[in-house]
Amino acid sequence: MRQHTITALWEEVPDDADDLVVVRGGFRIYRCLCGIRLADRAAAELHASETGRCTTCLGGTVEDIVPGFSQPCTACAGTGRRGVQLTWQLAHLEAQTVITDELVRGLIAPFTGPFRLSQVADLVRDTLGLPPGRLPVGPRVRDVLRGLEAAGELVLVSAPNELLRGTTVVLYRDPHWEHVTR
Ligand SMILES: [Zn+2]
Ligand SMILES: [Zn+2]
After folding, report:
1. Rounded to the nearest whole angstrom, what is the distance from the C-alpha of residue 113 to the centroid of ligand 2?
2. Could you tell me if 117 and 74 lie in one domain?
3. Distance (Å, rounded) from C-alpha 165 to C-alpha 13?
4. Out of 29, 73, 75, 109, which residue is the most buried by the measure of CB atoms under 10 Å away?
5. 46 CA distance to ligand 1 middle (Å)
6. Distance between CA 164 and CA 19 in Å, rounded?
7. How confident is the model at residue 1 (pLDDT cuts 50, 70, 90)?
8. What is the CA(69)–ligand 1 centre distance, in A?
9. Are residues 58 and 121 in the same domain?
């Protein structure tokens, strides 16, 4: 049986490179151990999917965000497997229908000062009786809170934990928000 292990090697990333292109798979050379030609990210993702690998980390279990910074793949829960990725995608969809803006808004209403993402995620788990690992609660709650932030209801009050590419690609481990007082 042929061995399919896809690796992505960083090319030189210019300082003025488009950050979105960098984090979404650009400036890399993709190769698979089986020798197939992979012209770009799309070809690499297709080959990963055909060979049962996660299309986000291409089976490598880690996501390379920028040169020098990787993190465990969140799409497949760090397994590298397409099957787990698909199951997890369904769980994301389920989380979207269960964890609504209204639910989160109600849970954070009593907070008078800054509150953390992890605090709200715990509240959601308690309220819905969800065991850890059942649904991607943290990522969904983060999306909801960011939506409320974009709508002007909340303001992000914590500084990023890491600046990965200047101040445009940054990492927040457990961001804090607070209500906008009118
Ligand atoms: Zn291959
Ligand atoms: Zn993955």
Report:
1. 36
2. no
3. 11
4. 73
5. 10
6. 10
7. low
8. 25
9. no
